[in-house]
Amino acid sequence: MSPATKCATAEQMVLQTSALMRVNVIMMSTLALLTFFLTYKALHLLQRRQIFHPSTKILLYTSLVFVNVHEVIFMIIQGAAFVRSFTLSDKPCEIMRTTEECRFQNHVLISGLAGINFTQFAMTIDRFIATIIPQKYATCGSFPGLFLSIIVVISSISAPLIIAIGDRYDDIVPNCFFFPQNSAPRVNIFLVILSVMVIISIVLNFLIICVNKKLEKSSRFHVQQRYQKREALVSTRIISYIAGSQFLGLSLYSTLVLTLRLHKPFIPVSMYHNIVWWAYTVPFAAVSLPALLICRINQVGSNRKRVINRITAKVETQEEHMKSLKQLWG
C-alpha cells in the first residue's frame, strides 16, 4: 500500500477524533487570537513610548513578526485538524496527511519557531554590544538591529530547508504539525540548538544586567554616560524578562519533544501523539512576548510619571532629588 493511500489504524482514528485533541485546538487557537490582539497593542506602545534604542526596537518588531507568523500557520494547521476530525471521522483512509502535502506548512512552522528563538538570541547580542561599546552603539542608530534581523530572517528561512535535506516526504502524519520521520535526526539536533541558545541568552542577559549596574555606579558624575548605562539597563531588564518567559515555554517544549522523539519506539502511538499535542508550549512563549512588552513598557512609563509628579509636588533635598532622577531613568 502506498503512503498516499495508507489508512489510519483504529488507535490513530481515536486520536484524530478525540475530545482531548479538539480541546487543545480550541485552547491554542484562543492563545493565537490573544497574541494577535496583544501584538497590536504592543506595536502601538512601541511607537508611542521612547524607551528602547532604535536598534533594539527593530529587533522587537522582527520578533513580533515571527511570533505572529508562527501563530498564523499553527492556527491554520490546528484548524484543518479540527475540521477533519469531524468531516473525516468515519474515513480512516482519508484522515491522515502525507508529508508532501504538509511540506509548505511544516516549513513555515519551523521557520516561525526558529525565528522566535533566533531573534531572542539576536536581542541578547544587541544588548551585549550596547554594553561593551556604548558610545559607538549610540551613534549607530538602527544598523545593529537591522543587520541582526537580516541574519535572523535568512537563518530562519534556511532552518527547515537544512532539516529537510534528502527527505523523500513519503511518510504519513496525523497533521502538518508533525515533522517528517526521515528528518528525525536533524530535527533532534535543531531542538538541542534551540535549547542551548535560550540558556545562553538567559545567562548573558543576567551578566549584562550585573555589568550595567556596576558601570552605572562608576559613572555617577557623568550624566550622559550614566543615562546611557541606565537606558541599557532598563532595556536589558525587559529583554531578560522576555527571555525568561520564553525560556520556560521553549525549553519545556524542546526538552519534552526531544525526550519523546528519542523514546518513540517504546511509547504507544496514541499516548505519543497526545503528549506531543500538549507538550507544544510555543504558543505560550509566543503570547508572552507582546504581553510582557505591554506590561513592562507601561510599568516604566508609570514609574516616570510617579517620580515627575513627586518632584513637582514637593521641595526635595539634593539627596532626594538625585534618588528621584535615578528612579526616573529606571
Automatic annotation (TrEMBL):
- Look up and give the membrane topology term: Multi-pass membrane protein
Q: Which domain of life is it from?
A: Eukaryota
Q: Return the InterPro entries for the record.
A: 7TM_GPCR_serpentine_rcpt_Sra (IPR000344), Nematode_rcpt-like_serp_alpha (IPR051080)
Q: Which UniProt keywords apply?
A: Membrane, Transmembrane, Transmembrane helix
What sections of the protein cross the membrane? 25-46, 58-84, 104-125, 146-166, 186-211, 232-255, 275-295
Gene Ontology, cellular component aspect: membrane
The listed locations are: Membrane
Molecular functions (GO terms)? G protein-coupled receptor activity; olfactory receptor activity
Protein name per its UniProtKB record: Uncharacterized protein
Source organism: Caenorhabditis japonica
Question: The organism's lineage?
Answer: Eukaryota, Metazoa, Ecdysozoa, Nematoda, Chromadorea
